[in-house]
What does this fold into?
Amino acid sequence: MEEDPPDPDGVPCDSHTVTKKHNNMPIEIDQSKRKRLQVTNNSAHPQKRLIRDPSQPVPSIQTSYTHPDYIEKKHKYSNTDNAPFIVHVSKRVDDLSTGVVLKPIKFGHFLYHNNIKNVVSDGVKRIGRNRISVEFKSAADANCFIENPALAGAKYDTVIPSYNVTRMGIVRQVPVEWTLEELISSIEVPAGFGSIIKARRFNRKSVNENQSTVWIPSQTVVLTFSGQKLPSNIYCFFTSMPVKPYILQLQNFQNQDADHSFARKGSHGVDRRSGRRPVG
It folds into this structure.
């Protein structure tokens, strides 16, 4: 077998050996050890592969669903709803910088001249800079008022507050792989209670392996029912599901000199739900 030709310095060349000079002194370096060292360094942090358990269900990506019959439908009072029958009115403006202010006495004048009746004697109240609360004597009067053509001509927008005609409840143990549309279509509400308008699934906060915050769908769903009563149970696939009232946690900002809670109050201390000012 023929030997490898000598390198310019006269030292035979080995396939695993490289000769270098340091301070004019030849130094032999074993290439096989260098390659082995590189492989060892690269394998120090191997890339992880995420393997999903095929037996685990895949969570649904749907987090909110509204029944098609209620997407563009205005809230209205039913014959079984209890007073107060309140309607909120605001002025439609093209430029918000104009600073439109609605005054109760002027809007009461508008109601009188348009022959709008069955308004409570002290039913017109200001609850915001551009918002008036009007209380009627019956549910039918409030429903007719929001359809009055005189409002559109004067550029007034009306809405019945959702908290006057809907209730929200929480159900648990809803499989994460179910879509909310499938859930609503399979629920049976007891007689005497309203239908389900909307469903929203809660997400829980978690941290993945990369220390990044992710939100994972949970088995808790909040349901919005039409009407002023919340059922204690609903039925889904021959199973009874308890319904608990959903209480929205609001942050209260309090003044150090006086107790001013802005959770349900406007800038003038008016309760947004009833339109009444605090006593005392």
